[in-house]
# Entry
Amino acid sequence: MQYSPTLIDHFRNPRNAGVMREPDGVGEEEFTECMDLARFYLRVRDGRVEEARFQAYGCGPTLAACSAGTEIAAGFTLEDLATVPPARIEAAVGGLPPERRHAALVVAGALRAAARDALARNGRR
Amino acid sequence: MNRRVYLDHNASTPVHPEVLQAMLPYFSERFGNPSSVHGFGREARDGMEAGREQIAAFLKVSKDEIVITSGGTESDNLGIKGVAAARRSGHIITSQIEHHAVLRTVQALEQDGFTATYLPVDGHGMVSPADVRAALRPDTIVVSLMGANSEVGTLQPIREIGRITREAGVPLHVDGVQIFGKVPIDVDAFGIDLLSFSGHKIYGPKGVAGLYIRKGTKMASIQHGGEHERRRRAGTENVAGIVGLGKAVEIRAREMAEEAVRLTALRDRLWDGVRGRVEEVRLNGHPTERLPGTCNLCFRNVESESIVLGLDLKGIGVSAGSACTSGNVEPSYVLVAMGIPLDWAMGSVRSSLGHATSAEDIDYVIESVVPLVAKLRTQSPVGAGRP
# Structure
């Protein structure tokens, strides 16, 4: 199975891994078929994501996609992040083999959930 | 450049240089069909029969009792289906932790009207001889059990089980793919009637394997065509492969005992090195009755494929117990049958050591896996990483 250099780099050097204290939004998604779990924490300022952090349990591509997901999320408006498509995550790790596409699904789902949580806390949804 | 350490010998081994040298002429000047009567055919046949004799000598059996096949899977199929075809109906006993080559063969026979009992194993992955005795029925036609489990390495009590099957007059098939050439096998003392083995697990080539069939065992051919292998397995023989398998067996006979001692020490060095530095790690399989080079560890709350990828990036080749295929993952059925909880079983990693493995390799693996597991746990939302 071939992984892109970008994916390998994110796996080897994960960005923004770990818990965030007092986040403005938290969301997680579990891909029950393979038990992968991604959780994102968001820090929000003026309706935009200032910082994202992640925790994840899963195979290498899922961990790498979480790392890439935190970089993508920064700068997004909450509204846009609440609809971020899996394809955006997949592109951010330089593509995924067909049997690992669930990595993008679980990460996009968790980011969307975190954005929705932040919107709800703000009373905006 | 990273060091490269291959610890997946239970999956496959490199061809031994002496094996390769022995095989080479049979790809070129001694290329004849061993069934041909002319000199070219005789040359090929002589090489093939010499290989068969080396295998027979290793097992201390007659060479007429050795049937060459294309792989361990075919040998398991032939052993079980061959008996079933001769009996046409009946009951089969096997275990829950067999290789798929056995499990799916037995399941296929169930579809054809045979019945089967899948024996449980204990927490070490061992079948109880008492369970074998209790499962025997008047219509039992074969007992098929592995000599050692490929994942956890547990050696089955074949000698005791063989005593029981012999008393009952039921043939015993042993999937010996993981024990052949690694631990001593005495087919008479162990009461083995059928023994499957394979070349590429013992530094021989892929695509060649064998089945020992004790003289007098009721068998029918399951592959039809020519009259090769004394009419028990049709098809032109893989002459170079058989020559290579014979040479590989000859080398194992010479090196096996010393190698077992060396690999056992390295295997234990790996376990001792990891357990002293990693929390929540467990050794799977029997603590002593285990293949010399097999070390299967579970890291709780870490996903095994992420460990395999992390080690791969350090040049280390190990095997994941739970493999994710098309977004669907099942924990190892072997570990589940052993009663290992899911949060442990999902993090199982098998290291299988071999001929070239050194103490420095093992130390490198320990130095690599300890920080990797710590990092993965730091990132994890389950277990210790839960906020």
Remarks:
- DSSP finds 13 helices and 15 strands in chain B.
- The first helix of chain B runs from residue 17 to 23.
